[in-house]
TrEMBL record, chain A:
It is found in: Cell membrane. The lineage of its organism: Bacteria, Bacillati, Bacillota, Bacilli, Bacillales. It comes from Paenibacillus silagei. The chain crosses the membrane at residues 23-43, 84-106, 118-137, 143-162, 206-226, 238-260. This is Sulfonate transport system permease protein. Its main location: membrane. PANTHER family: ALIPHATIC SULFONATES TRANSPORT PERMEASE PROTEIN SSUC-RELATED, ALKANE SULFONATE ABC TRANSPORTER-RELATED, MEMBRANE SUBUNIT. Coiled coil: none annotated.
TrEMBL record, chain B:
SUPFAM superfamilies: P-loop containing nucleoside triphosphate hydrolases (SSF52540). The keyword Hydrolase applies. Keywords: ATP-binding, Hydrolase, Nucleotide-binding, Transport. This is Sulfonate transport system ATP-binding protein. It holds the Pfam family ABC_tran. Residues 6-234 form the ABC transporter domain.
Length: 273, 258
């Protein structure tokens, strides 16, 4: 539901007349969410669905404007974004580092990979109590929890990307007399970029999800906290505002990564749909 | 004749397969002088690619000796340029960066050499294109330029035009001969196309298969540029074809025994 709502805001930009095809396709994407919103509003207005559980889009919009004008929304959002980004940068950065290390050298693979895979299998929620005991309910435990989630997609995909380097190109590198260092910088790493970017996208998404877990469990600030606080006071519209903000920021961050990806992978020759 | 650039003596190579030992090359003897254009022709599975890969230093585990300028070949390196059947360009690099590959394009001397090579292989205007934007022939020309930038003592070409259509192939042959005429780079060119072998080479090395042995070396003393329609060309082509057919007969006899 929330994602659809966001699609409305996004599609508004593409609605400019820059070609009939695009407008038609954007319109097609709008059809479903707009229809649902209208239906929702009508059903809510006539009391068919509970205003308590499903506040109408209009009520949610009012609540959004109220939160935005007091500045609560923005301060919470800023805190949440900083947390998610710190966790993502920490986890993703380490994932990239270890992915390269384990991908390049068989010895480090034997040494590190089994342990890392074990850690991967531990659910984030299971380590929450430990993290809180160790680091308290401050920022560290939240950032680390997010980092744990963000680590693995980048780690695994970097590894896969490196190991997926075309052997034929390795032969070329040998014939051209590449040094070991050039083999890594000019061949292995560029070849791994498509997978690394996939890992980054997945990690960023997971950071955002991990943030909710961290903020719902123990927090006094952030969008997640704003939502759990609202839930206690049965302020359902605020919960919806939180969901919409999560979805919107999630989509925005994913779009940014996709644009970076498109730029980095402009050499690629693959099916564009 | 003076000291050979490349000499191969008593070269033997076998592969261990599931079905037992397969003799890929047997007692191959070949001397290549500097500036020569050698074409190697033979049926598929005769070990012609293996021979080329051994010279390149890509395949090891043979007996006999292979020396370049008197020194045994210890591994692949830039003194032995190699053109594969496929272009094998780095897909993430533009044409000029592919040619430079591990060398810094920012250095003025390399920049200048790359620009010269782009002209030599007739790719002016495509310097900033990615491999996906090139046709097969263009991509193979980039691969040739990439090898030539390293000024190899010998350029080894493994059926480089095999995947191209007839027109592009004829054009590529002309481009390659033009490069050879200008740079005098020693070429060893493996092909399965008799016309191509006779059109390009000073000498045509005919290999027979199982085991891979040199059947005959036919000198082609026709002046360049050659025309495929002249009688002298056709006579030499028939000569090569005759040896080639004898190879085929041998193969059939072998086949009948199975």
């Amino acid at each position: 539901m929330a994602e659809r709502t966001v699609a409305v805001g996004n599609a508004g930009k593409t609605g400019q007349p820059d070609g009939p095809g695009k407008v038609v396709i954007a319109g097609l994407g709008l059809l479903l969410p707009v229809g649902v919103l209208i239906l929702w509003q009508i059903l809510g207005y006539y009391g068919v669905i509970s205003e308590m559980l499903f506040p109408t889009p209009y009520t949610i919009a009012q609540s959004f404007i109220a939160l935005a004008s007091t500045g609560d929304l923005w301060s919470n959002l800023r805190i949440s974004v900083v947390r998610a980004l710190s966790g993502f940068l920490l986890g993703g950065g380490l994932g990239l580092f270890f992915g390269i290390l384990v991908g390049l050298f068989r010895r480090s693979e034997k040494l590190l990979d089994p342990s890392l895979q074990m850690i991967r299998m531990i659910p984030s929620l299971a380590v929450v109590p430990l993290f809180i005991l160790w680091f308290g309910i401050g920022e560290e435990s939240k950032v680390l929890l997010i980092a744990k989630g963000a680590f693995f997609p980048v780690y695994i995909n970097t590894f896969i990307g490196i190991r997926g380097t075309d052997n034929k190109l390795f032969e070329v590198a040998r014939v051209l007399g590449f040094s070991r260092e050039k083999q890594i910088v000019r061949l292995v790493l560029p070849a791994a970029v498509p997978n690394v970017m996939l890992g980054v996208r997945l990690s960023l998404g997971l950071s955002w999800l991990g943030l909710v877990v961290a903020e719902l469990i123990a927090s006094t600030s952030g969008i997640g906290y704003m939502m759990s606080d609202a839930r206690q006071f049965a302020d359902t519209p605020v919960v919806f505002v939180g969901i919409i903000v999560f979805a919107a920021v999630g989509l925005l961050s994913d779009t940014i990564v996709r644009l970076i990806e498109q730029h980095l992978l402009r050499w690629r020759d693959s099916y564009q749909g | 004749m003076g000291e050979a650039l490349l000499s191969i003596t008593e070269l033997n190579k076998h592969f261990d397969t599931a079905g037992g030992k397969v003799q890929a090359l047997e007692d191959v003897e070949l001397e290549v002088q500097e500036g020569e254009f050698i074409t190697v022709i033979g049926p598929s599975g005769c070990g012609k690619s293996t021979l080329l890969r051994i010279i390149a230093g890509l395949d090891t585990g043979y007996t006999g000796s292979v020396t370049l300028e008197g020194a045994a070949i210890s591994g692949p390196g830039i003194d032995k340029g190699f053109i594969f059947q496929e272009h094998r360009l780095f897909p993430w690099l533009t044409v000029e960066k592919n040619i430079a590959s591990d060398l810094p394009l920012g250095r003025p001397d390399i920049r200048q050499r790359v620009d010269e090579l782009v002209e030599l292989v007739k790719l002016g205007g495509f310097e900033k294109s990615y491999p996906r934007e090139l046709s097969g022939g263009m991509a193979q020309r980039v691969a040739i330029a990439r090898a030539l930038l390293r000024s190899p003592k010998v350029l080894l070409l493994d059926e480089p035009f095999g995947a191209l259509d007839a027109f592009t192939r004829a054009h590529m042959q002309a481009v390659l001969l033009d490069i050879w005429r200008r740079n005098r780079t020693t070429m060893i060119f493996v092909t399965h196309d008799i016309d191509e072998a006779v059109f390009l080479g000073n000498r045509v090395v005919i290999l027979e298969s199982r085991p891979g042995r040199i059947r005959k070396i036919v000198p082609i003393d026709l002046p360049y540029p050659r025309t495929k329609t002249t009688t002298s060309f056709q006579e030499l082509r028939l000569k090569v074809l005759n040896y080639f057919e004898k190879v085929d007969e041998l193969e059939l006899k072998d086949g009948a025994g199975i």
